[in-house]
């Protein structure tokens, strides 16, 4: 059998390894950059669910402007017309990624918009 000293050493090592394991499981939240290449000002609404917590972000994005969003987890993106906020112009989910992503908001079919990923 092991002595109590050996059990204490195992317990100490387990406590030291716990923050390392938690840090690797959480990971870093990537930055999602959105650039408005359309002629329409839009409300960008982003919601993300990560570890049971919902995070919301809402930003007004005028033409030729850019915003950066840093939220962990998958992101649900809704683009609404700034003049008529109840009119949805785009809705989609962007999967979580370990890399930063850049998207351009462009016209699709009037009055719809689309997100086009720009590769660095």
Characterise this structure.
- This protein has 120 residues and is α+β, with helices and mostly antiparallel strands.
- The protein has a single domain, classed as Sandwich (Immunoglobulin-like).
- It contains one helix and eight strands, in the order αββββββββ.
- The protein has one helix spanning 4-26, and strands at 31-36, 42-50, 53-61, 66-70, 74-81, 88-94, 101-107, 113-118.
- The strands form two sheets. The protein has a four-stranded mixed β-sheet with strand order 4-1-7-8, with no helix packed on it. Strands 3-2-5-6 form a four-stranded antiparallel β-sheet, with no helix packed on it.
- Strand 5 and strand 6 form a beta hairpin.
Provide a quick synopsis of the model:
The protein has 120 residues and is of the alpha+beta class. The chain is 19% helix and 48% strand. The longest helix has 23 residues, at 4-26.
